[in-house]
Design a protein that fits this description.
Number of strands: 11
Largest sheet: 7 strands, parallel
Radius of gyration: 19 Å
Strand order of the largest sheet: 3-2-1-4-5-6-9
Number of helices: 11
Helix content: 25-40%
Mean pLDDT: 90
Length: 299
């Protein structure tokens, strides 16, 4: 469970000479995380200077890595110095991330930030609680902006996510989604769209719905994993209260667990079945299929 945030204080503004746009680093928040690490890698591959900000910067990660903690705003100036473009991942596990993002973004704009690409969610429209409030802030205050609204990550089925843990430990995926379908998307496709939004001229100045090529229920996803591994994996549906309790027990704050459970209930009602052409339109290639992801990760 993340530590409780410290009181928000004013971030000191550091005045630095303006670097040419081509030389100014792109600041990638959550730069060692699921999408941020991929965004940083793609930017480096294109010869773009990168500054990776993370709570756990790696000395072997390449590029300029800096320590960053949302609840320690006195240290934000070092991450922001000279930055003109930002990949923004809001604080994870916060039911009210706006309280932390708003003063940070104000300081960034005062130091010369021009473009922000925000990672949001397909389930959260502008103005809705949590990320929807950050969406509105970015659109209304940043000169050049893009909001990414990806569907659920394929990477949730591997690694440390509760879905992945359930597959490994019990051979089951527990959700409150019923037979609802999700257009699962690969994090690499999200990163490719993010890099286009960070670098393209002119700025996109819009939101992008980002999905995989098809919508699947968790039961269908479990069947594909079973076929690939030969090990039975099933989907078990539970009610929203039970799912909220499970997520809280996994270490999420209770208010944030309630938000996640409500999103599962939205899936049950069919809100996440849409399929978007965004990846193909902005990258020139089709998005990765869930079948391809399973083949690569479940052998």
């Amino acid at each position: 469970m993340p530590a409780a945030p410290e009181p928000v204080v004013h971030v000191p503004v550091v005045h630095v000479p303006a670097a040419p746009e081509s030389e100014a680093p792109v600041l990638v928040l959550g730069g060692t995380g699921t999408t941020g690490s991929r965004v940083a890698e793609l930017l480096r591959g294109r010869g773009v200077p990168v500054r990776v900000a993370s709570r756990h910067p790696r000395v072997d990660g390449g590029g300029d890595q800096v320590w960053f903690e949302w609840s320690a705003p006195a240290g934000h100036a070092a991450a922001l110095a000279g930055v003109r473009r930002l990949y923004l991942v809001a604080p994870v596990g916060e039911a009210d991330p706006l309280a932390l993002v708003e003063p940070f973004l104000a300081a960034a704009l005062a130091q010369g930030l021009r473009r922000v690409v925000l990672l949001s969610s397909s389930a959260v429209p502008e103005g809705a609680p949590v990320l929807g409030q950050v969406h509105r802030l970015v659109r209304t205050t940043v000169p050049e902006w893009t909001v990414l609204r990806p569907s659920w990550f394929m990477q949730n089925f591997v690694g440390d996510h509760p879905v992945a843990a359930g597959i490994r430990d019990a051979g089951e995926i527990v959700t409150a989604t019923g037979a609802g379908r999700v257009s699962f998307v690969d994090a690499g496709d999200i990163a490719s769209v993010a890099v286009a939004a960070l670098l393209d001229e002119p700025a996109h100045n819009t939101e992008h719905l980002i999905t995989g090529p098809a919508a699947l229920s968790y039961a269908e996803a479990a069947a594909l994993i079973t076929e690939a591994t030969g090990r039975p994996v099933r989907h078990r549906n539970v009610g929203v209260p039970e799912f909220t309790a499970r997520i809280t027990a996994a270490g999420y704050p209770p208010d944030f667990a309630a938000v996640l459970a409500a999103l599962d209930d939205d899936i049950r009602r069919g809100t996440q079945e849409q399929v978007s052409p965004t990846v193909a339109r902005l990258t020139g290639r089709p998005p990765r299929s869930f079948e391809d992801f399973v083949t690569a990760h479940f052998r």
